[in-house]
Each structure stands twice: as structure tokens, then as C-alpha cells.
Amino acid sequence: MKGLVYNGPGKIEWKEVSKPVIEKPTDALVKIVKTTICGTDLGILHGKTPSCKPGTTLGHEGIGVIEEVGTSVNSFKKGDKVIISCITSDGSCEYCKKQLYSHCEDGGWILGHLINGTQAEYVRIPHADNSLYAVPEGVDEEALVMLSDILPTGHEIGVINGCVKPGDTIAIVGAGPIGMSALLTAQFYSPAKIYMIDLDENRLELAKKLGATHTINSGSEDAVKKIMLATKDGVDVAIEAVGAAATFGICQNIIRPGGHIANIGVFGHSVDLEIQKLWIKNITITMGLVNTNTTPMLLKTVASGKIQPEKLITHRFKLNEIIKAYEVFGNAAKEKALKIILTN
Q: Which residue range forms the structural domain that includes residue 229?
């Protein structure tokens, strides 16, 4: 079979690799139907994640059909169509019992990071009973791919950690797939105003269609000044969805007393925390890796049509065109790319 292999910073290759096999009784072997590329994959490609070693098949999202299950798998069987969670969970360790599945002692974020991932024709899924979800009949498969990672990430690490509540004024800094997922799921909690801040006018236009009440192009406007003039003293919740010093700086400068800064972005280096200004404001700063504990709820909202994450998809490729897909995703502004679907 073929897979997309990371060969070190700046190097990926679509090549022949060994087809995975069942290694433990709790494993499932899944034939990939659809997968995608995440900003985290680009981070690995750019050397941002040294824990991912050369020779690893990338990817941690997708849907597929089960080809084989281990003897201890009870919830799934050959032929079942499933959503693959980006987080692997054994369900029994200390962290899993706290719903901190991202820190599972025999799992967490391992797909396409510490073990071979989903950007391949087949993938081995450890702890299948806790790490897969059945695909409901009649639901858009492309929408379901968004449940692997970006929807629960935006919801849990952005919206829930940020304590978004009815009547709040919130700002989402970064209108990429994660920021858009935060936008979609923030609306569950009825904030009064949602500011979306980005450099890309195309993404800001889409954000308006998806529910943002205000947009700010931080390339042509002073986002901090505009928000501080438009509000009493800043926003209740600032969600950082980029992973850059400048965007984290915006969040620090627009948060009001008692507010929450929810950091979703993945940083590859240290950034400044203006604690000399913030300590007196009684704010809360959160960050983290998605636990996927809200995935079952989000699956119901997608199945019902309450949210439509398929609207984030801008490009579609065959799986064997993945090198081209990486080029497009890596030049997102020029290519007007948001989320890409790869079909096997």
C-alpha cells in the first residue's frame, strides 16, 4: 500500500509502505475512505514537532471502513464505517478516568505523530472501541471528517475552556479551520457578539456567512484599537487560533477584567506574556490538547444539520494527489484554501 511519509523537516514522500496489521487484541485495521491535512501536519513538516520521527506516516483524521478487528474489540466489526478520532484512548488509565484522553498513558495524540497515521490507504487504530465512532446512516461523510479533530478542538479548547456564555462578546483571532470550528461551536452558547480577526479577506467573508457578527482584517486595521473603541473595556473571551506571538499579543491586549484567554494555537517557541499588565485584571488563561470528550455530542449536532462543517471544505483531491494537496494547503492564502478532503 502507499502512504505519505515524513522524511525530516521539509521532506514528505508518497511512497510504498508496509500495510499495517493487527498487533494487539484491541486494534482495528481500517481502510481509509476520506482523510484531510491539518495545520499540525504542516507543523510537523516544518520541524515544529521534533517528537515525530522521520519514517512516520502522517495524518490523524479521517473516516474509513473496518477491514479487521482484534479479538478484544467488541463495538465494531468488519465492514463498519467509522470516524477515526485524532486521540487514542484506552479508557482505563488514570487520565482517561479524568476524561483527559489526550494524556492517555497508552494513547493520546499518537496517530501520525508517534505511530503511523491516516494519510495512507490503511491505518491501524489502537484501542478501537474507545477511539472510533460509528458513522450514522445518511450523514455527509465529508462533514464527519471534521469530527476527527478540528470541531472538538475548537469547541473544547476554545469555547469550553474560554467559558463562552450567553450575552458574551468574544473574539476569535485566526480564521483558519480551528478558528472557524470555534466560531461554529461558540454559537451553541449564544454570545451577543463574535469578532473574527484575520489577515485573509476571503476567510473573513466566510466567517460572516458562518455566524461572525463582526470581522476585522488585522492587516489593514488595528484590531486592538478597533475592539477597544467598540466595547466598554474589551472582550469577555479571546480565543487564539493561530499559534503566533502577534495573535497571542492581540488576545492579551483586548481581554477585559475577569475575562478568559483560551489558547488553541500550537506554538513552536516561547512568546511574551505581559503579566505586568494582566495580573491585576483577574483573567484566566487556558491552553491544551483536545480530549475529544465532546465528540459524541458534536456528532449528533452534525447528524441533525445543526452545524454544517462541510462548508469549511474548499478543495478536494484523490489520496494519491496528496503531495499537490500539501502544496495547496501550505499556500492557503494564495490558493484560498481552508479545509482539504482527500478521497481514497
A: 153-287
Q: For residues 14 and 323, give the distance between their C-alpha atoms in angstroms, rounded to a whole number.
A: 7
For residue 48, the one-letter residue type is K
- Number of domains comprising the chain: 2
SS3 of the chain: the string is CEEEEECCCCCEEEEECCCCCCCCCCCEEEEEEEEECCHHHHHHHCCCCCCCCCCEECCCCEEEEEEEECCCCCCCCCCCEEEECCCECCCCCHHHHCCCHHHCCCCECCECCCECCCCECEEEECCHHHHEEECCCCCCHHHHHCCCCHHHHHHHHHHHCCCCCCCCEEEEECCCHHHHHHHHHHHHHCCCEEEEEECCHHHHHHHHHCCCCEEEECCCCCHHHHHHHHCCCCEEEEEECCCCHHHHHHHHHHEEEEEEEEECCCCCCCCCCCHHHHHHHCCEEEECCCCCCCHHHHHHHHHHCCCCHHHHEEEEEEHHHHHHHHHHHHCHHHHCCCEEEEEC
Residues 185 and 281 in one domain: yes
- Name the domain boundary from 247, 272, 287: 287
The pTM assigned to this predicted structure is 0.97
Q: Residue 61 half-sphere exposure, CB side, CA atoms within 13 Å?
A: 26
**Is residue 30 left, alpha or beta, with left meaning phi > 0 and alpha meaning psi from -120 to 50?**
beta
Give the model confidence (pLDDT) of 176-217 as tens digits.
Answer: 999 999 999 999 999 999 999 999 999 999 999 999 999 999
Same domain, 120 and 197: no
